[in-house]
Amino acid sequence: MNIISIKNVALGLAFSATVFGAKAQNVITEGQASYSIAVGGQTANATTYFKGDTSSLAFQRGPAQIKMVGTKGGEFFAVFLDVPVASMKKVAIGTPAEIDEAQANEPQYAFTKTEETKKIGDFNCKKYVAKDTRDGSTYDLWITTDVTIPANMITKFYSSLGGTPVLFTFLQNGNVKGAQVVTLTAVTATKVPANMFKVTADYEKMTLTDMQNMGKGRQ
């Protein structure tokens, strides 16, 4: 093999490695994602951290900082409530019965792929139609393959599509009346902060039912 051929092979291998590396960079296994959530004419921002099968979703509601932590399969789910002005820190940890009940109310989707495409923010997306087989209601769903991240608590319903949901509808507790339109705005590869998924000793523990009843008492 002459020198020119060797150079060509070397350049070819280098180019292949560069392309492969670029593709690999689009797969993020640990990091942070930001969402804009619209419901009832109002918009809120939420942040999720993810690593493996575990994720968190945090947002602000009035003076309260709320964070949900759960595993993709539902083995663990907790809601953290932090109200600094009231010196209140509580965590509701789902019992097996509570988790089973919540999963029973989750939507069951059948998907239809369309030929429509559009760019949403920085993401090139393809459109799917998600049909809830429980009641026949349908929702538009936009998926990107520009970046791949693990499914989290609000995107796990779409994991079979092999991409990352960018614009989709999330049904709170499977309730159509609580439908939230969610838009992915940014994804960053970063380390999950320490204790992000843990129940630390400074939180008072209770069940999900207890926290729900506490909220009803304040209405």
Automatic annotation (TrEMBL):
Residues 1-24 form the signal peptide. Keywords: Signal. It comes from the Bacteria. This is DUF4412 domain-containing protein. It comes from Mucilaginibacter gracilis.
